[in-house]
Amino acid sequence: MRLNAFSRPEARAIAWLGLGLSGLTAGGFGVAAALAPAARLPLLALGAIAVAAIAWACNRWLRHVLAALDAIATQLHQAARGEVSYPLTQNDEGLFSALHNDLYHYVRQNSAAKAALAQDRAQLAVAIQDIAHQLRTPIATQANLIELLATADTGTTAELAQQNARLQALVEQLILLARVDTHTLSQNRQSVSLDALLRQSLNFLLHQIAEANLEVVWQVPAALTIEVNPRLMQEAFINLLKNAAEHAPAGSRLIVGATKTPLSTTITIQNFGEPLPAADLPHVFERFYRGSQSVPNSLGIGLAIAHGVIAAADGRVTLANTHPGVLTTVTLFH
Predict the structure, then answer these.
(1) What pLDDT digit, counting tens, does each position of 113-123 carry?
(2) CB neighbour burial string for 94-116, b if at least 16 within 10 angstroms, e if fewer
């Protein structure tokens, strides 16, 4: 949208130049008319014509500059929307034309790179989902065979069942990660109790928490509700709670809290373990990223899934060092 012409610094500079030239011209012709009274009227007429010519030239120049700037602004706005266009009528020998050409080539290259990246990511997500779906059948068959094994070697059978359960959970997480990448997560939201949802998520980690002898400090008001997809948000909370518990020292505390404001509901999970290295902080939510403090057998997808699920629910999640410990903050905007 075109702004008021004189609200732009470039326009004001041209306007002041035109006023200055007009003033000098009018003053010069006025002095000449005073010194030559016999030619006063012709000189004043010439002065008026000269001032009008200066005003016309400055106006044409101003319109040309503003039109060129508006065209560049339009081209940038179109590029932001993914539209690539460059009318040939804007092509001339001037600097503005060169700038248009540079912008056009940059937008073309950027659009091509984004399209290639999106295609590669979509293909990877589909491949992960296909592989994960193909793995479901042999894993289910393997689980049935484990149940049919003789009970003589119960230790081996239990180990096989545990590894099979881990494989099954990994497959489900890979499928969920593929849905995060392809933005196909279901957003059928309903009002649920935040306290109940967090407790249900924590139930999946009770064995791990008991083994580490962690004290869970609960600071979640029972009356708080959130509008989310419960199954997906529970998966996100499980991953965040699991990450906090894995990095909490044995015998320490895990604090789970929540507050509500008119704008958002905030969930916090704090442990008292080692702070995250500065080099890891920018990458903790990247898929398959394993930092220097990653636990053995971690694939680096839990936090990526939590980040994707929360982002799809119009929220955000952050990790920050609190000295001691690490604070996980989930903000769900209303």
Answers:
(1) 777 777 766 76
(2) eebeeebeebbeebeeeeeeeee
